[in-house]
Design a protein that fits this description.
This protein is of the alpha+beta class and about 280 residues long. It has helices at about 15-35, 50-65, 80, 105-110, 120-130, 165-180, 190-195, 200, 205-215, 255-270; strands at about 40-45, 90-95, 115-120, 140-150, 155, 180-185, 220-230, 235-245, 245-255. A hairpin with a 2-residue loop joins strand 8 (about 235-245) and strand 9.
């Protein structure tokens, strides 16, 4: 008699595919949770005195990042926590910003710039936020970000792949990382298919833009328009986002595009986390 081996249900292609998706999602969630409680700053040297200052700076940043509440910046209630910021630190590490450049003398060692990366204890940070009357914001949407930059007669949209917007793209991603947000930018091909132009972005609705970043997992659209102002020697910026059936808008003037992006992403986080409207 010929015996046939029965396939295990676990070996079915559909089951395997589902298992892989679940594993990927779980890993992605774990990575997002890990980085949510991480902050970084730049220090001179690796001495304890500067590291203590760095810990305090990073603590304020991570409290804002985890809560989505930028109003905590400069809040005097944070001072007692910042004075013992090392109590909340889980691990830290340095990255030499001049890596590959030889140290020339002893003074150069002390003056060498480093990135300080600090991972905080999530339970301790959550407890501090609770004492401050703020709730940790742990479930976050992916932002589809559309930014038009107008300078003179030219208006350019920042995309995921255009070399001419490399600096702005990197700045947007740094701003998103600072506030614990995942972002999706449109690529050039999507703009061509949709016939979207820089000047046209100002009058385009969020619902019309959503399909351009849907494949990247974007849940909600943030729209920004930056216009260079010679009088202010900075960018005049308008941001808008639709959330829970209501439009939200905020403006700022005379800032660098780095600061404009930080305020744009931070403002979106403030709204989405339920911490009010940006000022």
């Amino acid at each position: 008699m010929t015996r046939h081996r029965q396939k295990s249900p676990d070996a079915r292609p559909g089951f395997v595919a589902l298992a892989l998706v679940v594993a990927f999602v779980c890993c992605a969630s774990a990575r997002a949770g890990d980085t949510l409680y991480r902050a970084q700053t730049v220090l001179t040297g690796q001495g304890e005195a500067n590291r203590t200052i760095g810990f305090a700076t990073c603590l304020e940043d991570v409290l804002i990042k985890v809560s989505g509440a930028p109003r905590l910046a400069g809040d005097p209630r944070l001072q007692p926590y910042k004075s013992r910021a090392s109590d909340f630190v889980k691990t830290y590490r340095y990255h030499d910003k001049m890596s590959g450049t030889p140290t020339r003398d002893e003074q150069g060692t002390r003056d060498r710039p480093y990135d300080l990366f600090v991972d905080f204890d999530d339970e301790k940070i959550n407890d501090v936020l609770k004492e401050l009357g703020v709730t940790p914001w742990l479930s976050r949407p992916v932002l589809g970000v559309f930014v038009a930059m107008e300078q003179g007669a030219r208006t350019t949209i920042v995309t995921a792949d255009a070399r001419q917007t490399d600096l702005q793209r990197d700045s947007l991603r740094a701003a998103a990382d600072k506030r614990g947000m995942s972002i999706a930018l449109p690529d050039d091909a999507a703009l061509v298919r949709s016939s979207l132009t820089g000047p046209g972005l100002a009058t385009t609705s969020s619902s019309a833009l959503s399909p351009l970043v849907a494949a990247q997992g974007a849940d909600i659209v943030l729209i920004g328009h930056l216009r260079w102002d010679d009088a202010d020697l900075g960018w005049a910026t308008d941001w808008r986002i639709d959330w829970q059936g209501r439009p939200h808008q905020w403006q700022l003037r005379g800032v660098t595009f780095d600061e404009a992006f930080r305020r744009g992403i931070g403002g979106a986080a403030e709204i989405l986390s339920g911490n009010g409207d940006p000022h």
